[in-house]
Amino acid sequence: MGELTKIPQEDAATPASFGAITPMGMISQAVANGAGIETVERLIALHERWESGRARKAFDTAISADRRGSPYRDAADPGAARAVLVA
Fold it and tell me: Is 21 a domain residue?
């Protein structure tokens, strides 16, 4: 007693070995385990927030990429947009 046993790395459970845990996966697991409707509703709300966050990040990335390549930027001050006059 008192001795530590080293677990071989291939036998150890690591977060990477579990795969990505997503709200949809949690919903599937909850339904398979017979979770109550309240639990499923809360997981669905979590899934909606998750998807909203992913959409916001994708939008922010697209806007950032567009602004970097925009011809309406001042080279001296990349953070400031130039005014465009339309005749």
Answer: yes
Whole-model pTM: value is 0.54
Domain range for 53: 16-68
Instruction: Determine the Cα–Cα distance for residues 67 and 61; give it in Å rounded to an integer.
Output: 10
- Name the residue among 30, 33, 32 with its Cα closest to residue 22: 30
Query: How many domains are there within the chain?
Result: 1
Q: Is 78 exposed, middle or buried (0-12, 13-18, 19+ CB in 10 A)?
A: exposed
79-86: list long-range contacts, CB under 8 Å, 24+ apart. Answer: none
Contact, 74 vs 80, CB < 8 A?
yes
Residue 24 and residue 21: Cα distance in Å, rounded? Answer: 8
pLDDT band per the 50, 70, 90 thresholds, residue 80: low
